[in-house]
Design goal:
By secondary structure, the protein is of the alpha/beta class. The strands form three sheets. A six-stranded mixed β-sheet has the order 6-7-8-3-9-10, with helices on both faces. A four-stranded antiparallel β-sheet has the order 2-1-4-5, covered by helices on one side. It has a two-stranded antiparallel ribbon with strand order 11-12. Strand 4 and strand 5 form a beta hairpin. Helix 4 runs antiparallel to helix 5.
């Protein structure tokens, strides 16, 4: 469904990603993981057309995404960044309604079909009772659900999330992750996430893509990717990796730094 081929990305005369590529199948949940500054969020920006590339290509169902009409891309792909800011006093319902913009002309008002989809998105994200609350008055977890509801109202096939659990406590992190995976299971939405919590990435992803120094280090199922060797090579961490029989996936426990960095 989405394929990145030989991507080269840079800014300020510096190449930050070089020769990167991977493919994402319809209905998958894939997490991009790697150290700070490895290029994860940069790759996500190029995949979503928020940033241009210096070389390579990104394909959406076989079409170069950077050559497709913006409205067409917006109908099929939704993006949530780390920092989402809504206008002051914007209500949850108003925010979610913005997800319908790609589906109508600039001069058209929301129709009955749009209203029905907005109500559906509010229901699926558990926000019906908060629909008239200002977004800025919500808790962090509620606010993140409101932005996800907007993406859901967009009716996009692909959802790209840049660190969706940043700044949330563990309870709200789990709430958001369960919501995201629930949308994948129920509606078949394809999801690409940038995550820092490796155990969460393992638990909630079908595949992991590891980026180190702007290049693809490895990719595959969590059981094949989360290894002591990978953690040592990519994160400079010694760790114990064990199988969590409850979820059938590995978890890791950091033991300390592998060695002093030069």
């Amino acid at each position: 469904m989405i394929k990145a081929s030989n991507l080269k990305i840079g800014y300020d005369h510096k190449i930050v990603v070089d020769g990167f590529g991977f493919a994402l199948e319809r209905g998958e949940i894939v997490s991009l993981i790697g150290p700070n500054g490895s290029g994860k969020s940069t790759v996500l920006k190029v995949l979503s057309r928020l940033m241009d590339k210096l070389g390579g290509a990104v394909y959406l169902d076989g079409h170069d995404i950077h050559k497709l009409p913006t409205r067409e891309v917006a109908k099929r792909l939704s993006v949530l960044s780390q920092y989402n800011i809504s206008p002051p006093d914007f209500t949850v319902e108003e925010l979610v309604g913005y997800g319908r913009l790609p589906h109508r002309k600039w001069y058209e008002c929301r129709g009955s079909a749009d209203e029905e989809i907005v109500r559906w998105a509010l229901k699926e994200t558990g926000l019906e009772k908060l629909s008239h609350r200002p977004v800025n008055s919500l808790s962090g977890g509620e606010r993140q659900r409101a932005w996800i509801a907007m993406a859901l109202a967009q009716k996009a096939e692909v959802l790209l999330l840049d660190e969706p659990t940043t700044y949330l406590d563990i309870s709200h992190q789990l709430e958001v992750m369960e919501l995201i995976t629930g949308l994948n299971k129920e509606f078949g939405i394809t999801i690409i996430m940038v995550l820092h919590d490796l155990n969460q990435a393992v638990r909630y992803s079908h595949r992991l893509v590891v980026i180190k120094d702007g290049r693809l280090f490895t990719q595959g199922e969590p059981k094949d990717v989360l290894t002591r060797e990978m953690l040592r090579s990519v994160y400079n961490v010694e760790a114990e990796v064990v199988l969590d029989k409850r979820i059938g996936k590995p978890v890791f426990y950091p033991l300390g730094l592998a060695c002093a960095k030069a």
